[in-house]
Amino acid sequence: MTSLSRRAFVTAATASLLVGCSGDRTGPARAERPESTSPSSRPSARTTHVLGRSVPVGLEIPAIGVDTPVMQLGLARDRTVQVPPLTADDVAGWYRHSPTPGRIGPSVILGHVTVGAHGDGVFRHLARLHRGDRIVVRLENDTAAVFAVDSIRTVAKTDFPTDEVYGNVNRPELRLITCGGPRTGEEYRDNVIVFAAPSSASP
């Protein structure tokens, strides 16, 4: 694990994950420090192209019509992960205590499924993705990190899979997170999580 992802790992261990909803602050999943994933269970970083550190500025997911700027997110005063503001021009947000996309480790990007009175959020169709769908993260240095969807999971917020989202991996990976499942008022019961791995496809 790089020094950057180690810092992200420790920071995540102190935060509650509250992501991608329509403005509610309910349904936290405590981001406990996960156990390291065995290197034998992951492809070696030696066989994967690793990019230099560069902040993400845009996100494209052609299969669901996403083409959005990406803002930076940190931690709120209560040590929860920030979410993008609820605005009509809704955008995705990169959790800046995770590795930048293309670096070794799980890079985390959050988005809303709905944005209150403004309607649908940028990740409104995230659950419709399929294995193999392409994800392109545009970076500040005019390069791009390209990923392909590995799996999509809908999980109760109370059972958030912290180990799998924040756990140690020895290649670049991507996590996209929003809310989903049954809705009561402005609150969603579940999180939708997309797990993506490096792709050799051109951006």
TrEMBL record:
Gene3D superfamilies: Sortase (2.40.260.10)
N-terminal signal peptide: none
Pfam families: Sortase
Compositionally biased spans, kind Low complexity: 36-48
Stretches the record annotates as Disordered: 21-48
Top-level taxon: Bacteria
InterPro entries, per database record: Sortase, Sortase_dom-sf, Sortase_F, TAT_signal
Ribonucleoprotein in keyword set: no
Keyword terms: Hydrolase
UniProt protein name: Class F sortase
Organism: Streptomyces chlorus
